[in-house]
Amino acid sequence: SNVINPFTLLDGKLTQLLTERGNSATERIDRCAEATVIVRPAVIGEEQALFLTASVRNVRSSGNLNRIRLAVAFEKESADSQEILFSFGQPRLDGISSLGGTGILQPGGSFTAEWRILTNPRLRLTKDSVYQANVLLSFENSLTGQISTQRLDTTP
Length: 156
Fold this sequence. Notes:
Elements: E1 7-9, E2 15-20, E3 30-40, E4 43-44, E5 49-58, E6 65-76, E7 86-88, E8 92-94, E9 100-105, E10 110-119, E11 130-141, E12 147-152
Parallel strand pairs: 1-11
Antiparallel strand pairs: 1-4, 2-3, 3-5, 5-10, 6-9, 6-11, 7-10, 8-10, 11-12
């Protein structure tokens, strides 16, 4: 008999302020963007889909965020969690043309990216497993040329 053991992904809706540090300890931190990441549903069973939505807004009044990259990966919360393979399709994009390093976000502009993510249907779960979604955002400040890479939180 096929036993479906659900595994959980940490779910959260948290708007995170993204900043850039100056070149020295005396320079102020520059608030440049806001980001929200939502993973839903929080619990899924075998062969069920989950959706990860990332929204980013440039909060500056001047200066683009250039060369935008957004990457998603899943990491086990504990070493005894069962290995699960995730399959990502191409994200649905709104407000940006690419997340591969060519995207540009103008002042006040925003974008949303949504992935439909599946688990490998050939792997059967034998226990509950907890995974954390890791979302990395990278961009270049058009005013300074500084590149910033930041992890976006997915839990409150």
